[in-house]
Queue: 4 jobs
Job 1
Amino acid sequence: MEKYIERASQLHRIMSNPVSKKAKEAGELSLTAKGRVLERYNELNYGIYKNIDNKFTLKGTQLEDESILLFKKVFGEFSLFKNEKNFKNEYFTGTPDLITDDLVIDIKTKYSLDGFQKMYYNQKPVDKAYIYQIQCYMHLLGLKRGMIAFCLTNNSEEGIVKEIQSQIYKSDKISYTDSEYLQIEEKVRKEQTFDYLPDNKRVKMIFVDYNEDLIVQMKERIKQCDKYYKWIDTYVCDNLEKFFVLLAV
């Protein structure tokens, strides 16, 4: 059976700790981690990938190229091109966004002005999920420095229309006049486009140094997940065998 290998973007889920004191003391995986291992089992064995898209992840996926272009424009790095190569070792797999000789860069597209400003003015700590991801990229590439670049890119027309529909759906009103609809549209478009800001205030970069201790912790958690992964497979096989025995009776 194939060894359990985790994607960089999902490491934060298996690195979560159990809620109960008893589970922590016993060194058990958290329910979140177990759920992720089960998802990974379905990915690797059946090709079934859980759809976790929401308006935040959808914008990040759809506008990744625009965010990369904004980043290159602000920092004059026009020689950089989006990396399409997947890197993999016995623990991790991932596809970094941008790679230089001594730096790996992960692009994050923020959804709203408020969310971006909290990051821009350091009011909010960097999400652990991003730290695990960039550490993984550095490890896979053998680099000692990484960067997380947060970009405030205009939403797509599709995203704007969906947000307008969402705000209308959440309202208690049954119908809207043309004037009221236009007010909602104007409000959403103002919230979802940011051309009134200079480009240099739409990109925030945070440098991250390689942390070997964290990599060791991540590898240990991968080993723990691998045991649970194999248990899932054994459980499935055992129960299928019992099922066929019952059919034969």
Note: The first strand starts at residue 6 and ends at 7.
Job 2
Amino acid sequence: MSCVLIIAEHLNGQLNSATARCVACAITLNAESIDVLVLSSSGQAIAEQAAKISGVSKVLFADNAANEHAIAQILAPQVAEVAKNYTHVFGPSTTFGKDLMPCVAALLGVAQVSDVMSVESSHTFKRPIYAGNAIITVNAPADQIVVATVRTASWPAAAMNGSATVEAVSVSATLPT
């Protein structure tokens, strides 16, 4: 069964709607659990916003002063550490996600699936190519963690009527200085 980790995108204490769109994508996997990870310097309020997304099982937040600015090389080691317990790791196909997710995939030693616009099965996805003029089906290896960016324009935002639990986590990944 699939366990999905969604990486929350946020700015100035506000959760980006792209996170709810990633959850909508994850819901189509019929996952056992969908968890959201908030990496911030003070993420409790952001985590509480994410907990309201329908379909989310649990929201994890890791506070660290180094997370004040969303820099992929700082966030990726933390995501990779938490992601080892999941079958899928999704981030939005925004500037934030396109910067972060390749670093996460590299640290996990897997390929990344970009711009998921449709889920065919747990490891089969459709995505656009040639500037959106063609659609291709991508099969990710079934024995590896799937790291993907979700094409937010292809998914409606999940409803905001959930009540997931919020949990602080300690991430001990070595961060660059």
Note: Residues 95-108 form the longest helix (14 residues).
Job 3
Amino acid sequence: MIYYAHMRKGIRRIAALAVAAATAGVAATAGAVEWQNAEPEARLGGRMISAGYLKGKVVMVDCRDYGQKTNLEAMKRLQALWAAYKSKPFVLVGSHTGAASDRRIAAIMEKFGLTYPIYRDFGCETAGDEISVFDETGKRYYSGGDDKAAQAVVGQLLLSMAAPQTE
């Protein structure tokens, strides 16, 4: 019984962290998200997705120029996140916002082992590097340029989905 009580406290603490992360300079939106450019012709590599596939999942959209070498470390970290959580109700979608050709992006994906879906201009609101994290209802919990902070929010949201808080 003591262990169970400690688990509940830990879950509440994690949920509080998720709320704190969501309110710390993060743009939260109400209502469902309209995903743009989820069509097959916008896909550059990785798993094929659709707007319906994203429903009920934590979704991270990574908007960046995938043709820039300066983004390589972030892409490697995101690949590790995808590998760790792809069996969970989670989807990572890369959104290529640069001018590099589809062929170049495919070559980069192959060279660096990127297996998560990457689409051209998928649901990005800005032209610069930005990451957004949405919960299973489509509410935005993170918007910014720090992939590590976004990964922490993903983990917290997945944890809160796995263990509902009931008293």
Note: The helical segments are 2-23, 51-54, 72-85, 102-112, 147-162.
Job 4
Amino acid sequence: METTPATADPAFKIRLSGHKAQRDFWQSKARYAVLGGGLGSGKSFAGICRIFLMPPNTLGVVASITYDLVKNVCFRTFEEIAPPGYIVSHNKNEMHTICADGKEILWRSADKPTAIVGFNAHWGMGDEWADASEDAHNRFIARIRLGERSAWFTTTPNGLNWFYRRIIENPPSACEVFHASTHDNKNL
């Protein structure tokens, strides 16, 4: 089934095709949303798509467990999805992107939690977050403190670790959890 998310800026239309878990995840109004699923289930893609739904003139952060994943999966996916002209500039050294609707995006690695400091953001995405440390999660959440504050996480399950106990088994009241299967992804 195809869906066209109501992008924050109507000048940039994005037509996306997603399975039910992805669509539900995109439409979630929860302060924290989680999309967990198997390898290739479209989690990172769905997480990146949510960026386009964030209000204009906001600052967001996208973090993953390593710099390589941030650069080669998260940013590359964003670049592939973005409509022509949407990315105004991208500083590869600072991993900072400015978008046509005034959004700014910081791309960060969670492998050194002490590096997740020095900014205040409106929204954020954590990719492969069950593999991040709980310290990285706490620092990440602490940075999302402007405006209405929204964060979402995409992840492949990683056993009964801190993420499972804290987010999946006993989700906070402001959290909505979605599950996807590898078989849900019709593009595989």
Note: The chain has five helices and ten strands.
